[in-house]
Design brief:
By secondary structure, the protein is mainly α. Helices cover about 65% and strands about 10% of the residues. The protein is built from four helices and two strands. The chain is elongated, with a radius of gyration of 19 Å. It starts with a helix and ends with a helix.
Length: about 160
């Protein structure tokens, strides 16, 4: 009972933004115009408009990504490790790898939520988008946990 509650609390906390973006999209769906931003250039400007039905692709791809990453997080033995992995340091490598993957998974769920939010706010003319800093911030947000995790992994003897 307690374990189930903790797992549900964990899943809810980690996927709140992603699930919230889907609820937001469903709530606002009838107010969306037929054409919504479908692609952005490097400057953060819309360079292709598409059907509002294309917005459904984002939660689907996000969900598939999260399911795969969740599976990989639960099976650290299939991750790629340096040759110095052995029985004595395997628990440390597995823990570090799981934490790193969890952080990347959380950033991915946040990124999909933000992209949905940006597309909707531009389509409804609530904003002009996040601008030129959007893509670099997203890339940095994903790579920071990877770099930190790999640095910490190098310290394992």
């Amino acid at each position: 009972m307690c374990l189930t509650f903790n797992v549900q609390k964990y899943v809810f906390r980690n996927y709140t933004c992603y699930i919230g973006s889907i609820v937001f999209l469903l709530t606002i769906w009838n107010r969306l115009p037929n054409q919504v931003p479908a692609h952005f250039n490097l400057a953060g400007e819309v360079d292709r408009w598409g059907s509002k039905w294309e917005l459904i692709i984002l939660p689907i791809i996000g969900g598939i990504t999260l399911i795969i990453m969740q599976f990989l997080e639960k099976h650290p033995e299939v991750h790629n490790y340096p040759s110095r992995l052995n029985e004595s340091n395997a628990p440390q490598f597995y823990l570090r790898s799981r934490k790193m993957l969890n952080q990347v998974k959380n950033m991915c769920s946040l990124i999909f939520a933000v992209i949905i939010l940006e597309s909707v706010t531009i389509a409804l003319k609530w904003s002009k988008g996040f601008g030129v800093w959007f893509l670099p911030v997203l890339i940095i947000a994903v790579f920071i946990p990877l770099v930190i995790g790999l640095i910490q992994q190098r310290k394992i003897k």
